Amino acid sequence: MPPEIASNTAPLGRVLARLPAEWRAPLARLGLAWAAILLVFLPDWAAMAGQWWDSSTYNHILLIPFIIGWLSSQRMAATLAQRPQGWWPGLALFAGAAFLWMLGSFAGLSIAKQLAVVVMAQAAFLALMGPRVAATQLFPLFYMLFMVPAGDELIPTLQTITAKLTMAMLHITQIPATIDGVFITTPFGYFEVAEACSGVKFLIAMLAYGALVCNVCFRSPWRRAGFMVVSAVVPILANGLRAWGTIWIAGWYGIEFAASFDHVFYGWVFFAIVMALVMLVGWKFFDRAVDAQMADAAAVEASPILTRLSALRLGQNAALGGLAALVALFVGWSAAADSLSAPLPSRISVPQVAGWTISDSGPTTDWTPLHAGADHRLKARYRDVQGRTVDLSYALYAAQGEGREAGGFGQGALPMDSHWAWEAPGPDGFGGKADVIQAPGPVHRVTVTWYRTGDLLTGSNAKLKLVNILDRLLLRRRPTAVLILSAEEGQSAPAEQLIRDFLSATGPQAEWMDRIARGG
């Protein structure tokens, strides 16, 4: 070996030489298993990494792998004092995670697939290292869950909470204001609590930080719980204060100045101050000594529960083979389901409706539902003899999957990042999901969404997902259709009544949607 190569490999050799002999083969198996999970499910890991890098909501996750490494190193002495073993309950957990990945693939739920691949990595550790080793690394293993970029689903709820908190503060400070959904009108401007103003990014980062502080700085479970409550509540309250401050500054210096001030001060400085204040308050309650052990090898060895769990042993080579077999099973099953595609007509056309004609006029404010990945799409405006209008959006999918979900997040009547915002639940009695949405103006719309597949007609995205998942589990080919009817308020009749009148003209809705799917 050339001297320069020998010098480069010597540090690694010294590290391996310091490892107990019984650890070398198990670590090699774990490395092999993790490398396989990374390669086989590379699209899911790459999608996660892309969100960490591209989305400001998840930028903090870039630090989490390094934090996990630091947490693990703190426990290394206690970990190396244990003897690794194969453990069949770890295989059971891995099977559950792989099944979740397959269901996420069937439903087109990226978050389910991303959670599943992280749990697979955790389960592989359990299957190849056993319960005692896992006990010494319990918190680092748990902290891996924070690598999953989850939280966008909270945005609508946080928008509503922020708007209500802002209104309460405006009333306290005697600033006249009215609220309409997430839109706030004041004497000096019209403000929207937009998705970017929901505070979700700070809440998610604060929860991850709070969990880390709880483990490192606290021993009492009650103090840990209390700090986590503070870590969840304070960001929400602080975001309400931020929104109020932006409006207050706009009253003094104008909306443009307030917007730039919000981006610079509130975006970078304000929440750093809030985080520092939370830590300052929690400091006096810290009850873990700086030099306290993060894992107690003797306690792990003496634990009767871990002794019983350790009896569920499995050969390490058998565990590694089991992991490989499970991956092959569920990846193969998913690939077979992905190849399914229901037969569709070459084209579909806008349906005729008795008493209504198709109009060339456009809405007051553009409204274009999102149906990403649909094989066929229709959009039309209908007008009756009284001049009342109803808008239709229809989409037909040969299959459901990643990037082509009829009820996927941000799909349908209220696309993400559009000028429309959710205002309130819509009227009941349609058998579909009704919402009231609003655009600046303000312009109000009632929208009603239905999904159709097989014999199912529903407005529930959850029911649609369950039926789609069952179809793919059974390798059954059936198309999925989505219909959205909408009407603007401010016409000669309420929007709700216009939609009901249109539905009465279409006849039985399930049959009407099926007729469109057959191409007329």
UniProtKB/TrEMBL annotation:
Entry's transmembrane regions: 27-49, 61-81, 87-111, 123-146, 200-218, 225-245, 265-286, 318-336
Main location: membrane
UniProt KW Transmembrane helix keyword: yes
Species of origin: Novosphingobium cyanobacteriorum
Topology in the lipid bilayer: Multi-pass membrane protein
E.C. code: 3.4.22.-
Protein name as annotated: Exosortase A
MF GO annotations: hydrolase activity
UniProt keywords, alphabetically: Cell membrane, Hydrolase, Membrane, Protease, Transmembrane, Transmembrane helix
Top-rank lineage group of the source organism: Bacteria
Stored NCBIfam families: 8TM_EpsH, EpsI_fam, exo_archaeo, exosort_XrtA
Cellular compartment(s): Cell membrane
InterPro entries the UniProt entry points to: EpsH-like, Exo/Archaeosortase_dom, Exosortase, Exosortase-1, Methanolan_biosynth_EpsI
Pfam families given in the database record: DUF3485, Exosortase_EpsH
Gene: xrtA
Domain Methanolan biosynthesis EpsI: 326-510
